[in-house]
Design brief:
Helices cover about 35% and strands about 15% of the residues. The radius of gyration is 20 Å and the shape is globular. It has 10 helices and 11 strands. Strand 1, helix 2 and strand 2 (about 50) form a beta-alpha-beta unit. The chain folds into 2 domains: about 1-190, inorganic pyrophosphatase (n-terminal core) (Alpha-Beta Complex); about 195-315, Roll (Diaminopimelate Epimerase, Chain A, domain 1), CATH 3.10.310. This is DHH family phosphoesterase.
Length: about 325
């Protein structure tokens, strides 16, 4: 593809490369970011390549971030992975570089960057990074560590290959990554583990989930509930899939109170399109997996009514 050729040529011209991802990272954000950085470090050992983005919370078994001063961004190339819009980029320093490249698999509703490679058919940005390597494998070097990171990203964004975005190509990429020397079984176990308090919160979600007659569901996690279970928002992504495991649930929202007073909204669906709901509420994302924000309980109720409407119309 011409776009990947252009990206590789641009990478070759820079001595310093800063790779960012989205805030509140998931395995694909870190897998694509770290996978790309590891490939480029192996290929261009003379270059200065950094991963930027602040805390990774309980995903530090994948990678941790570098800390750099603003002056290092002078004449640097910035690459973002798995980040649909500029406000979600991890770290304000991204705008200090000379040029910006976007690599992403979310709908390109808010374009940014001097170059953009967006493939909404890819299961994950990690899958795209492997494709980038494979297309230019005569020039780029894969490593065991890069394979581990990219595999983790694919596993994370496909829900262990359960989600509709999983294609035959996705499985082909995963199969190729498994030929490298890393402990995939151990990695899968680590990704699947949850803490005892998250397990207990899972019980709360199951017990208190609101489900209407059509299968539209929601759970409200107030600050009081979070405090009761000694949890913070960064620990709640482990709860996202819980409603979907219940027979009859077709689309759902998880509303998590934030210290600032608003609610983070995580939307998921087994069929009805929910990213349009997210766009109307300061968010966006994939057709079946999106995020939004609700300023108060009235907007929480409004979003749930919209979930109910799309489920009712779909079925």
């Amino acid at each position: 593809m011409q776009i990947t050729k252009d990206i590789l040529e641009k990478i070759k011209t820079y001595q310093t490369i800063m790779i960012h991802r989205h805030q509140s990272p998931d395995p694909d954000a870190l897998g694509s970011q770290g996978g790309l950085a590891t490939i480029l470090r192996a290929t261009f050992p003379e270059k200065n390549i950094y991963c930027i983005g602040g805390p990774v919370n309980d995903l530090d078994y994948l990678i941790t971030m570098d800390s750099v001063s603003d002056d290092l961004y002078q004449n640097a190339l910035v690459i973002t992975t798995d980040t649909a819009n500029a406000p979600r980029i991890s770290g304000d320093q991204y705008n200090l570089g000379k040029e910006l490249i976007k690599i992403d698999h979310h709908p390109n509703d808010e374009p940014y960057g001097d170059l953009a490679w967006v493939n909404t058919k890819a299961s994950s940005t990690s899958e795209m990074i492997y494709d980038f390597y494979h297309e230019h494998q005569t020039e780029l070097q894969m490593t065991d560590e890069a394979a581990r990171l990219l595999y983790a990203g694919i596993v994370g964004d496909t829900g262990r290959f359960l989600y509709p975005a999983t294609t035959s190509h996705t499985l082909w990429v995963a199969s190729n990554l498994l030929t490298y020397n890393f402990d995939a079984a151990s990695l899968n176990r680590t990704m699947d583990e949850i803490s005892l308090k998250v397990a207990r919160m899972t019980g709360y979600v199951t017990e208190n989930l609101v489900i209407d007659e059509n299968g539209a569901a929601m759970i409200l996690l107030t600050q009081e509930i979070l405090d009761e279970f000694d949890m913070v928002d960064s620990e709640t992504p482990a709860l996202i899939s819980v409603p979907g495991k219940i027979q009859g649930v077709r689309a759902w929202g998880i509303f998590v109170a934030q210290p600032e007073g608003f609610y983070r909204v995580r939307l998921r669906s087994k069929g009805p399109v929910i990213n349009e709901i997210a766009k109307r509420h300061n968010g966006g994302g994939h057709v079946l997996a999106s995020g939004a924000n609700a300023k108060d309980l009235a907007e929480v109720e409004e979003i749930y009514q919209e979930i109910q409407a799309v489920v009712r119309e779909f079925y």
